Amino acid sequence: MVEKSSYTKREDGRKMDETRPLRAKVGIVPSADGSAMFETGTTRAIAAVRGPRILHPQHMQDPRRGLLRVTYGMMPFSVWERIRPGPSRRSQEISKVIEWALSSIVDLSEFRNSVVDVFIQIPQADAGTRVAGINAAVMALAHAGIPMKEMISAVAVGKIDKTLVVDVDKEEEDYKEGEGSTDIPMCILSRSKEIALLQLDGKISPDDLKKVIEMGKKACEKIHEVQVKALKEIKE
Amino acid sequence: MAERKIVVPGETIITGEDYLPGNGTKREDEDIVANKFGLVDISDRLVKVIPLSGRYIPRRGNTIIGQVVDYNMKGWMIDFGNTNKGFLQVSEVPWYINKNELLDHFDFGDVLVAKVDSVTARGIDLTIKVKGCGKVEQGILININPNKVPRVIGKEGSMVTTVKEMTNCNITVGQNGVIWLKGDEIDDELKAKKIIEFISENSYVDGLTEKVKEFAESLGKSKSKKTKKTEDESVEDKE
């Protein structure tokens, strides 16, 4: 029983396993200790790292290791309808999710009682903002000289009707026909190839999920190359 | 300078049991893997990564220049731009101190040249029982990016010696990015300041020493014609 998917061609002419054009740059916020920009298509994320610095309030300090603190936010003009600036239910959740993904690689054991702050802002959003944020954040952390086990790359894969795709954009995310769309942000470590983040919004069969994760791993390798190239380009 | 390539965390630097992992690296089976972003430095068997950016992290033996921000019965707290402040114990000062008169020796806001004695879980201990350390009096203090300090010092202190000869200034470079310049004439100090700023702006240029010499000549001759000081007290240490 093989049913045809109604989604056979992508709007912008991409192949199903192709990402949008990628662009990355390091060192865009001069006052921060480390900063980076990551762009996929029209989704853009800026990350700035400040610290390690002393953590306040003092009761949160940990004398055994440093703390990683992530703040994610979308700029008011990043989408068609203005969104209220400041923390929202959604942005707080995404901040925590990114924090968990990043804490699997960073090693803050030598920064006792201190905090490393990661600020992620989205000036332009076209779906996949949390993965773009992770990609920018990990470059900014490397730029800030924070010890890390390895790098991390993230991509949002998905299923549009019955077609498996990589790097879902907003139009695909809102696809209603057939089985609708499933959005799966995922995060792969660069060396051990372990999964640091996997979320799922929609419905997908276990077989399809395995297949789409493999597609995502390949895309992450490409994203990793872009990140490494951007980091190696800086001259300081 | 055998190999100078930039690595990112998780990248294999070199494979083989012959090498030892140093700062910023880690052994993973056969491979030596970077866990920091920076330049690879392989000397003999030791592989390490020199950070290109980020904050200054104190290590034992580093010379730093910092400011007195607090004191207690046992000594002074020195702020040198790190997350944790350094602590200078009374016993680490090479002369007798009456514990009731600590501020007579080093007051709030005084700037000190000190050496990092130890970095432990409790904190950073400093000492001034070493030659070249003590209170900063007269001269100019300038701030540069701590990651450019190795370029300002040069290989085995070659760059800083060149600047000293050209300007007749005494230069003390703190690994935390603070530099103390002291000359007989204020013009010499200003000239040395300009040269050091030039170095930190052009730190990635090849043949920097030659460029620095050209730049120094364009600034004009040094005014004090005194012979070079023999008591070179400035402390240089390699990264």
Short description:
With 236 residues, chain A is of the alpha+beta class. Helix content of chain A is 26%, strand content 29%. A 5-stranded mixed sheet of chain A has the order 1-2-3-5-4.
What does this structure look like?
The complex is a heterodimer of chains A (about 240) and B (about 240). Chain A has about 240 residues and is α+β, with helices and mostly antiparallel strands. Helices cover about 25% and strands about 30% of the residues of chain A. Chain A contains 4 helices and 9 strands. In chain A, the strands form 2 sheets. In chain A, strands 1-2-3-5-4 form a 5-stranded mixed sheet. In chain A, helix 1 links the parallel strand 4 and strand 5. The longest helix of chain A is centred in the C-terminal third of the chain and has 28 residues. The relative contact order of chain A is 0.19. Chain B is an alpha+beta fold and about 240 residues long. Chain B folds into 3 domains: about 45 residues, Beta Barrel (OB fold (Dihydrolipoamide Acetyltransferase, E2P)); about 70 residues, Nucleic acid-binding proteins (OB fold (Dihydrolipoamide Acetyltransferase, E2P)); about 80 residues, Ribosomal Protein S8, Chain: A, domain 1, CATH 3.30.1370.10. In chain B, the strands form 4 sheets. In chain B, strands 8-9-10-12-11 form a 5-stranded mixed barrel. In chain B, strands 1-6-7-3 form a 4-stranded mixed sheet, with no helix packed on it. Chain B is flat. The C terminus of chain B is likely disordered. Chains A and B meet through strand 3 and helix 4 of A and loops of B.
List the helices and strands and how they pair.
The complex is a heterodimer of chains A (236) and B (239).
Chain A: E1 22-26, E2 34-40, E3 43-54, E4 67-74, H1 89-103, E5 114-124, H2 129-143, E6 152-160, E7 163-166, H3 170-173, E8 181-189, E9 195-198, H4 206-233
Parallel strand pairs in A: 4-5
Antiparallel strand pairs in A: 1-2, 2-3, 3-5, 6-7, 6-8, 8-9
Chain B: E1 6-7, E2 12-15, E3 20-21, E4 25-28, E5 31-34, E6 38-43, E7 46-51, E8 63-72, E9 75-79, E10 86-89, H1 102-105, E11 111-119, E12 124-127, E13 134-135, E14 140-143, H2 149-153, H3 158-167, E15 169-173, E16 178-183, H4 186-201, H5 208-218
Parallel strand pairs in B: 3-7, 10-12
Antiparallel strand pairs in B: 1-6, 2-5, 4-5, 6-7, 8-9, 8-11, 9-10, 11-12, 11-13, 14-16, 15-16
Helix pairs in contact in B: 3-4, 3-5, 4-5
